[in-house]
Amino acid sequence: MSDTSQTSSWSYASAPENTDHIVLKEQYDLFINGEFIKPDSKKYFKSINPATGEVIASISEANKKDVDLAVASARKAFTSWSKIEPKERAKYIFRIARMIQERAKEFAIIESIDGGKPIRESRDVDIPLAASHFFYYAGWADKLEYAFPNKNPKPLGVAGQIIPWNFPLLMAAWKIAPAIACGNTVVLKPAETTSLTALKLAEVIQESGLPKGVVNIVTGAGKTGSEIVNHPDLDKIAFTGSTQVGKLIQNSIVGTQKKSTLELGGKGANIIFEDAAIDQAVEGIINAIFFNQGHVCCAGSRLFVQESVAEIVIDKLKDRMSSLIVGDPLDKNTDIGAINSKEQLDTINKYIKVGREEGGEIYQPTCNLPSNGNWCPPTLFLNVSQSHTIVQEEIFGPVLAIQTFRTIDEVIEKANNTPFGLSAGVWTEKGAKIFKLTQELNAGVVWANTYNKFDSTSPFGGYKESGFGREGGLHGLIAYLNVE
User: Which is catalytic among the residues 121, 263, 465, 471?
Assistant: First the structure.
């Protein structure tokens, strides 16, 4: 890959992660009933490295018969899995968590190769958190009566789960761990552009000895997902992805007995008050919007800075952006990796063009972008208003829209002026301001003096067009239980 260092008087030496030890097959089949089987469709699609454009592997494309087989396998397994001693379920889940830890480096490298995110993020965030979710819900498996005292919690049955491409293994853990801890069985479909770590997880599940059929993983694109959503023998649909697809899913299951949780898009407000620790806040802004190339549903893509400190915050932010390294996801120096797909890069560039056309003032630092792959420099827009498209619509890329405010009531009104309600951030030294905003911001998650901090013990989810239901924490169990 070409030089990825920024234009400056000095630069970091290249520090690529060694990939010699990872094992990837040229072709991956479907994981159904504890075995890898060839798809009935006999069709495969390519998984592409977004940083190089090279083909990594061929992935099965499941059709209706494949989904039927996976659901039938899960239904059969549910009969016994739901009745075994909860402490025995916990042992399997704990074993899966330990095996993820043991293979953490391999998982991290594959996540970065397949998805484009920097290895530092895969290594330090995605994989540890994925293992943590399995550990956490292993601990709850035999304690459900204590989680819901004076109730009689029972598993729902078979859950259909569809996950996105931005946090592939982590989203699989968010879905699978609580579901099977509660005694349910699962049919999971990963995103078509990032299926590899889910399929590596299938290998771990197989080696863990988890009873056959408890977890089934079928790959494919939107049509495969539609077959899962519309399957008559599923009791629950869990989806993380775009608001547009979430609405289609909700319409599809209306009138059925299927329960659902939808974690959809966002347009998070990140609010900087004049009494904030400015340097700390600037780092928080960087993390909020440029983490994972902005491929984050809860990204702080709308920045509100109190007018009295706007100039210094923006100057420091531009200076910090100029130091960000864009390039090879496997280089441990890289801050911003590759955009996940050519289609997503086109979408981001479309919004940048619209931002310019609507009068926004753009800033992008000078970057030496690689010649191959999908790349977008960190971008911010000034002189935008509430009516600008880039302020109202989710971009899902490294693009930040900045506005100023004078009073706390003004910023609350502006922050809530969006169809989304997933996340927000507040930066101030005053606890009273923090408590006021956490009460009045229409967001499922509000971070104070930090951003994008996740924990397996803490629930996550949104309001309005950001979906409903919670994943993580005690709340994540409720989504997979009938609590009488």
Answer: 263
